[in-house]
Design a protein that fits this description.
The chain is an alpha/beta fold and 496 residues long. The protein is 49% helix and 13% strand. It has 16 helices and 14 strands. The protein has an eight-stranded mixed sheet with strand order 3-4-2-1-5-6-8-7. The protein has a two-stranded antiparallel sheet with strand order 9-10. Strands 11-14 form a two-stranded parallel sheet. The protein starts with 10 loop residues before the first helix and ends in a 7-residue tail after the last helix.
Length: 496
Amino acid sequence: MNRHEPRLLAEQALDVRPFAGALPGGEEARGFSAAVVSGIAQLLEALLLAGLGAILYAFYVRSGADMLYVSCVVATVALFNVAVNAVGMHKVSAYRTMIEQVGRVLSAWTVVFLALIAFAFALKVSDAYSRVWMVGWYFGGAGCLLAFRLGLRALVLRWTHEGRLRRRTAIVGGATEAKALIGAIEASAYNDIQLLGLFDDRDEKRSPGRVGIYPKLGKVADLVDFARRTRLDLVIVALPLAAETRVLQMLKQLWVLPVDIRLSAHASKLRFKSRAYSYLGSVPVLDVIDKPISDWNVVLKWLFDKTVAIAALIALSPLMIGVAFAIKLTSNGPVLFRQKRHGFNNELIEIFKFRSMHVDMTDEEAVSLVTRDDPRVTPIGRFIRKTSIDELPQLFNVLMGELSIVGPRPHALQAKAADTLYHEAVDGYFARHRVKPGMTGWAQINGWRGETDTLEKLMGRVDHDLYYIENWSILLDLYILLMTPFALFGKNGNAY
């Protein structure tokens, strides 16, 4: 079988996908980032306390000493947030508890308030504050914290039950290593980790078909296809560190996936400093590969994409309407052209473009790349392709969440370089799909725009795409966006 053809997953692997982490209607639950949930919870808690202090001041005090009370509220809320984080009560695992969470949070609130009173007495400014306001804010704040934390606990437990706050995890390896790892996870990280099964290249004699209740779902190569058919957040390699060759072979297959990959250090006799590890519950692991864009970076990327897309549609709508009329008046056929391409994690998406070819010569599969003076391209099409105006309808793909403004350009499924399909020509080609594809990218502003008729051109584009993925930042996205017009109309504008 060609290594790029879809693999036939084992029946057990296919059985896992529909129900693991599914909502009541059968739809697979979308995962939430624990860091984002914790960050939002901290913000809401701070706003709740600050808002209560402001309301009590507005309705009872109104002394005109606004800044005195404002500084008191801000300092108290900030110190309380530090205290709550210090006692570990702004973690998703802590949100699931009740007695421990409520006890520590109310204790932190009390200690911070006592510190505030002591500080006020020490500075001899206690008389400047209303005692009714102070007592009201303390007891009202305690009540609000109790209600907020109980509500947060109920919500987190619901999301955990739905699988939204559990990292869907596959284990690479079997036998005694996997058994020890599974036992440790179930003892300390069960609510944070949802184990789906194991993948191992070894035969049944060396790696049994089941470890505890978890079945072996296939070989490591099957894991790649499994991760593209269902949500997978984490891969833990339960192989001994001494198995260096096997670990490297496994990583060569799995690095194309947009998941975190960790090497279990639970059973290893080697011991490093604590900061060398990350932890799943109390299970130490070594970070091997991180998902390129995660946690708050996902939020930043989403806001950047939506803001730029909406602003661009508003600003460019007269141009887009004019192009649509020009296409309709100068050639028969629809204004828009739709084409299947690979999106994030190899998901098939349908992108929109202004039609630039004669309708009876349209190449939906992109088997033949467009070349200079290509007779299939209309006069209007030649202009809009040269200037990339034909790609402006992809702003709607951005709003639909299928594309980003900046990212590796999505290639046509059957596109070839030197008569070889792209994914067959470049090893690790699908690593480009660890992030959403974009309307413009690092490769495009560095001269790798347009025709990719040779392997050298294709490899140059892929190398730049991989550089972008490994070095992503919101500032890099902004730089690429600002440099795109210069690439379109400068010496690198070589699209036909």
